[in-house]
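In response to a reviewer's request, we include the raw inputs and outputs for one of the modeled complexes. The two entities were modeled together in a single run.
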Amino acid sequence: MGRAELMARRVPSGPPPPPVVQRIRLRYAKRGRLRFTSHRDFARAFERALRRAEAPMAYSAGFSPHPKISYVGAAPTGVASEAEYLEIGLARVVDPVQLCTAIDAALPDGLDIVEAVPAGPGSLAERVQASHWRLELPADHAAVSGAVAAFLACDSLEVERPTKGGTRTIDARGAVLSADVSNGTGHPEGAPRAIMELVVRQVTPAVRPDDVLAALRRVAGLALVAPPVVVRLAQGPLDARGAVGDPLAADRAAVTTPL
Amino acid sequence: MESLFPKLEPLLPRVSKPIQYVGGELNAHTKAWDAVAVRWALLYPDAYEVGLPNQGVQILYEVINERADALAERSYSVWPDLEALMREHGIGQFTVDAHRPVAAFDLLGVSFATELGYTNLLTALDLAGIPLHAAERTDEHPIVLAGGHAAFNPEPIADFVDAAVLGDGEQVVGAITDLVRDWKAAGRPGGREQLLLRLAATGGVYVPRFYDVTYLPDGRIAAVRPNRAGVPERVSKHTVMNLDEWPYPKTPLVPLAESVHERMSVEIFRGCTRGCRFCQAGMITRPVRERSIDTIGSMVEQGLRATGFEEVGLLSLSSADHSEIGELSKQLADRYAEDKISLSLPSTRVDAFNIDLANEFSRNGRRSGLTFAPEGGSERLRRVINKMVSKDDLIRTVSTAYAQGWRQVKLYFMCGLPTETDEDVLEIAELAHDVIRAGRRATASLDIRCTVSIGGFVPKPHTPFQWAAQCDPQIVNTRLRKLRAAINSERSLGRNVGLRYHDGEPSLVEGLLSRGDRRVGAVIERVWRDGGRFDGWSEHFCYERWVSAAAAELRGTADLAWFTTRERDGDEVLPWDHLDSGLDKQWLWDDWQDSLGEFEQDDCRWTPCFDCGVCSNLGTDIQVGPTGRALLPLAPSAPRS
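The model returned the following structure tokens for the whole complex.
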């Protein structure tokens, strides 16, 4: 309105919220049918679990205080994961093992807290250099191997990713460090199954398994009769041999005195 | 019973929001199929995000699953994208708990909060492989049982349901379960027909096939009569008389998907005797029965522990009317002050007390919007509908609200009310302008917002307006356009008023389904066959489809207009007259006449009984406090820091 408001603005009363005295990093898994939870769905469920577990959360200040939670890049909706990470800030020092058990018990089965470690120095997000994915593809081993060979022979392969506003062009090849194909086993109907394991470097925007599948379709016409079952096995630092390590290893190694 | 999930799972990546179909919510149950005698599928015929928070379904789900001899699983309407894939892959309507086929259950309970879910019932039946017409079902099909407010006139869906139950479900669901269990244990004597007869003979379950409807040459109903022995002339609603004994849901479901109510709800009383003449809920849920403050306190505590929700809604038809709402809100706000738990209540009353409550609930939170519902634009119209609010009261109340830091006031009205004229509706514009002026005076700021929301009025069965002519949608649309122009006629005020309304056409269809009789079933079926789905959603609703289906199926005098915009006479047999809500028909008629005379009716909680008939007909009584009690202290074993 361009005019100074005379109305007295209400401000939150009372003392400022207690500070963060401990940071804990959690590894969690998204399994089975609950792999269909989106990241937003997980975040709501996790905040409720924190309250049920009576975790002594630290909150932001203001009229609508938020618990201190920071997430590291989440797996896409529909993709299972054994290795998702987040960090929480607590107003009171707790035993991480007990906290881990209590939060896990407060979450539905299929959203599982795997491990809790007090945060050491350094940012968790910066330790995530790559992701290890496992894709179970309803396709013939030879067809997948051929497509992957053609894919790896390229330097770059642009694919269109559908987004809310239209499409986005992404290079699905450059970030892929390795792509190994093996035979799937034990499928009851005997339909062909191939297992593809991908190691993908963390880039912006992130290259997802779907982008790689779109590239295989583009480069070799690889078509799937049904959606693949995809799981993230690991994300973390890259070692010299191109394997993905444990991002919490550095925290475990650090002296675990509270901040 | 085999799970359909392995067949469903590969389809889920191809549909929107797949999480809504997978179940696995906190506090969901999956019981062993063979361990129980009676199996209920509970269908909410709308999308999961709407159906999951529904209190009725959650209560029945828990009450049934607490029994050792029964199980209940939930099912919701699937969106058209999944419906198409399910048809392509031969997957039937499933429950989200164990993904069992709905067709395999003994009973399919369907909760109708609104009539606009009728086409979704047909989708679910058809996907389940259950014949749409009750008459074509055999012993292998579930008994399809309707409940919810729309079940107070189930005649439009009489062809599709086997039975309907009126009123509170907590106790009758147990009685039905017992009856089905005993019938199964006895070797299902007489098959489906005998089971339905046993249910009908209780007097508390309406089985449409056991009643014949005859018509007069002019299209009106001549009579509705039982067509066999042992079936009562009238079927009564059910009333739970001690809500403290039924503190459900104890462990509310917590969805992973985002739902329309991201909070935990605790019902603080049931019924309402404010007597708003348009309000079906208030009429059919009488008498008022309060939960006591200590039961509410323990339900809130137990529910929060079971769910982790951060907001608690204190539900009822008019929550500020609880006899101990002041103490209740203060004590709850004190108890949870440290826990970042917020409290809310649907505020509808227009008075300063309501603002005190709202302030209590937002002690240290954001004061965003306060909602009031004057419902009628003019004082004259508010007398017609028995919503006693004067303009001065309203202005005084909103001034207080703005002065105490509330930024926005929302006002709810209806359009198309009986006796309404253009002038009544245009008074809403004056009121909105006065609200803005009052807000500016109270805050010395120009930055004041007021939102006016308008819904189309639909006359409902078992209300004094059940005889009224529904307003033609074109008149409603014209009045709302005039209202918009009037609000904007003073730019400096109008720019701070937001006006929200929908076209009147969906209300006319709701009116057809609300006051229709058995002849309307063919219209519903034709609309559904023509692709009608999710009629409560504006992006799916198609008015032309309903109009053409009504034109094709309703031949003769009783056409779409006859069912909707026609005023009924006092001696007309109404399609729901044989369904007893407890309300005396003569009292309803007298209240309708009082309405036309602009006479108001007081609330029987504070004035002598005015003989609406409910308590005397059904042997019930008002249960209100104050009890003078307080929240029970929390158990020492469960300290809260």
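As requested, we also summarize the result in words. The CA atoms of residues 139 and 193 of chain B lie 9 Å apart. The longest strand of chain B covers residues 38-47.
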